[in-house]
Queue: 2 jobs
Job 1
Amino acid sequence: MSLLKKDKDYSEFLHELKTRIKSAQIKAVVSVNRELIELYWELAEKILEKQVSTQWGDGLLTQMSKDLQNEFPDMKGFSLSNLKYMRQWYLFWTKENPKSQQLVDQLKNAKKLVLQIPWGHNLVIVSKSKSHEEALFYAQKTIDNNWSRAVLTHQIEGCLFGREGKALTNFSASLPVPQSDLAHQTLKDPYIFDFLTIREKHDEKELEDALVGQVTRFLLELGAGFSFLGRQYKLCVDGDDFYIDLLFYHVKLHCYVVVELKAVPFKPEFAGKLNFYVSAVDGMMKTESDNPTVGILICKSKKKTVVEYSLKGVNKPIGVSEYQIISALPDELKSSLPTVEEIEAELDEIDSSHVDLRGEV
């Protein structure tokens, strides 16, 4: 590849890249992460253009890596592996050649989102997402919830994209729009509890003990907005004491959320009991500034038609989901290129000692 260094076009190409990189270094003081991701996008775009229009081939990346690291020794983001990640990342978002205004707009929206999240998050998303829709979902969630890379990885490996908004509910009939839509999107099906160490044949108390014992992880699985108020929450109704398994307040929905746990398959009478608890919270705790209380029944399994019939005559908003307890994700849910370990190693290499173009990763 030493012949490339004598190629006039390559020299001009390399000079152009160096100029762009120096410009990015200056702007990084003002907008660190955005400039880094914008730079990586442009580098990947130019690399692919040159590989198509010249005969330089894959050796281009090797030569570029050496030359850019020599020119910018304080920036550690120009390793051969990271240049390959840039290209892979760019190809993921542009692999569908825009032939319509809709596709052009989708690409613009994607670029707008990826510029707002750190490079490490970008690598995790594209390496583990199977479609643009899924990747955009996780990018938006990262921005909305300020997820760390560890939390983002956990949510992707837990298949949040395929579970959010999938619970069976009566929200459309019992809540006004847009609260019904937001409430529906808040629920998952199934809920995945991968942090529990309980017997296979556990009961509700064991499940509740495990969830409350790891309430931070449980809140992460429930999703953003849930504030934990208590377990076995006591309500005194007409002289009798009743106990709610778990009580939350949702700061985005502005309502109380009653959660009932069942370590058995769904039964119609469960909906009636939860309806009673939701009505009691509405009558005894809800204020004028609160929206209607929502009930969530999380059970071991359910049959769709049985749940639908059970909720049909219930006028309080109730959702029914299953839960799964796992110790590790199945192999088919784990992405292979690159792995999180590879990303971690690459991010360590990207650390720079003087000018920091990374942003928080």
Job 2
Amino acid sequence: MKLLDRLDMRLTDEMRRALDATVSAAERRGEGLSLVGGAVRDLLLDTSHVDIDLVVEGDAIKLASAVGRKLRARVVTYPRFGTASVRNDGVSLDFATARTESYLRPGALPTVRPAGLDADLARRDFTINAMALRLAGSQRGRLIDPHGGRRDAASKTLRVLHDESFQDDATRIYRAVRYAGRLKFRVHRRTDALLRRDLLFLDTISGTRLRRELERIAVEPNTAEILRRADGRGVLEATHPALQAGPQQRSAAGGLTRLPESHRDAALLCILISAASPAGVEQAMGRLSFTGRQASAVGGFVALRAHERQLADAADRPSDAVRLLSPRPPESIESFALVAEGRAAAAARLYTASWRHVRPRLTGNDVVACGVPRGPQVGAAMDALRSARLDGETKSRDDEIAMLNGLREELATAEQRGG
């Protein structure tokens, strides 16, 4: 089947109309337009989804703006890199001006200059991402493959384009293990040797960029396999010694797909630091510039690990477990449930699945109507009623009312002592 036919089969009606409008606009402007990179790779591999990444031999920002007006879509531009995106309901198109890149020093963001399509493909990371499919003009449908990407895709091989690739941008080390794990490709022997040689260049990359690579791994469908490949090559240790992905961590990472996607980044970071010392955790958080949400999740996770024995002992009394778990962020509890073992892990799972949703049958107004004065005593009564329901000590509203009658004097005495 021709690649254009494969592409057409994967497009929704909205995307097909948007791409047709883009092709027409490029032809009117006399500009070359090609589908590039991972999109072409995924067509060759016959995967179910293809992102529409377009290279324009001309002005990508002006073309995207024209398409955006035609589609009445939102256009976001990035003039420094000559790129733009067009977004609308059901439409997602990414445009880039064909360009070449140079690096002033390892790890620096590239200096970009307009160039032809061949130069644009030559700047890319791996041969399988250095192909283009012509979408406009007389060469429409032609595959441009100057670096043997089709051959490597067929043989399931990941290969860099040149020997300094990982030095120019060491985040490509993370991309290598991510693509290899996702696609189940082997890393070419020479590429593997270069990757191991250049691990020290990870030190040239900012913490934020490295953290984002880990965030991308967290939402992959096979995170555990990617971590296995990364750990086996020393990638995580080279990033920071506190990061570990041994068998226990990889087993835990295998459960990330059960979590909400928005929680997986923080949960993966908790898993990767799970064997580190407190000092190591602090250092890793600083090196990787954890976000506030991620730092809170890790802090909660570390606290739960310190109380693991107490959680195991509390597994038969849900209210005790809830008191230990409820102050922690959801990502802390979810990652703890993946890393911990036995009764402690079971308590965390039960909390997430059901215990955290348990509330008294009586409302605050009911409690006041039963004679408890408004103020702190109402909150204390509601807490006691919730604990009793969690532990199976009350079975109905009548049970809770009876319990409340017995609590009133005790609550009033406690408040008087507190005052």
